[in-house]
Amino acid sequence: MSRFNWDIHGQFRPLCASCNRLITFASLIYFLLAMALGYLYLFPVIQTSGILESIESNGTCNVFEGSWIYDESYPLYNASNCPFAEPGWNCWANGRKDGDYAKWRWKPKGCDLPRFNARAFLEKFCGKRVVFVGDSLGRAQWESFICLLMAGVEDKKSVFEVSGHKITKTIRFLGVRFSSFNLSIDFYRSVFLVQHGPSPRNAPKWVKRTLRVDMMDDISKEWIDSDILMFNSGGWWTNDRLFHKMGCYFQVGNSLEMGMPVTAGYRRALHTWASWAETMINTTRTRVFFKTFEANHWSGKNWNTCEVTARPSSDTNGREKNELSDIIVEVVKKMRIPVTLLHVRKMSAFRGDGHVGRWSDNPSKPDCSHWCLPGVPETWNELLFSFLLPLY
């Protein structure tokens, strides 16, 4: 009996070994499946088919062509709960009660724009530095970006402005630190990108300032050490603002170019920026973006009437046409380094409903240039997010 049992046990030994191997293999498959499901949970946006081709607009889907559709799941944050959102752009808190302006999302023709995933970005870009450079429209995108990311942070106190500054219009540098992720999101106020300074000696009395369109802004050295670099410029480039209100004219070298039109000055400034970027930016590390000039919705004989609509329009009414945006496209296409263009001009032309209007901290001055937060700028950041996440 004893020997018989040993024989049986001996026959079972190879079978048990096979079972052990089978169990090990099944465990490995289970582990890999669990990892895959976890990845899909954390990074759902990557599952959008063809997103990289779509965003680069070289596939069948151009994400800059499409329409705005109503979506009850928006907005993605509450500006009143985000200390980095400028109070003057918090339209809801300033009395606008329809709320629908924040519930429209961009739907490209032939594909979908992925929803912003704060946690995925924070984990993917841990230890990185993101820099926004430009005017107040660029700062609005920067504020929107930070408020979107705040949704992925459990300890809100771990997010702070590095110098203790409140968000204001005039400070040249604002830096927000997500300390739990060693992530910096910075903004540099450089409305022209090129050097703005006093008029040269012997200039006519009406020349108060000059724009050195052949020389970069003196703070440009601060932008270089970055992983993501987003530029915009356009809102200040008008005859009325430059020549009449500021008494500011263009300068090249020591020569005051009194007859240079705004569009020629802008083109020269962008070529200066492009040359600087090609020389100074290490594109093996830094991804460079440039956003085209967003549409405003001023109307009237002197373009001084601001009437905010109740919903997006079905037609751009010609507002998608803009010479400054065309110059940006022209310059970027000829650059020797990769620069991603966010061509948002046409997208924004539909959104006469999205402006601050009279719902600001100064309702006596209606605003049809800037956007309510939350609102339209979230779409610029969803575009940016879609470009970036598949690349890291």
Structure description:
This protein is α/β, with parallel strands linked by helices. The protein folds into two domains: 1-42; 51-391, no CATH class. The chain has nine helices and 17 strands. It has helices at residues 2-42, 51-55, 118-124, 136-150, 239-245, 262-280, 323-333, 345-349, 377-388; strands spanning 66-70, 104-108, 129-134, 159-161, 173-178, 183-189, 194-198, 209-216, 228-231, 248-252, 255-257, 287-291, 298-299, 305-306, 339-342, 355-357, 367-371. The strands form five sheets. A seven-stranded mixed beta sheet has the order 4-5-6-3-9-12-15, with helices on both faces. It has a four-stranded mixed beta sheet with strand order 7-8-10-11. A hairpin with a 5-residue loop joins strand 13 and strand 14. Helix 4 (136-150) packs across helix 9 and helix 6 (262-280) runs parallel beside helix 7 (323-333). The longest helix has 41 residues, at 2-42.
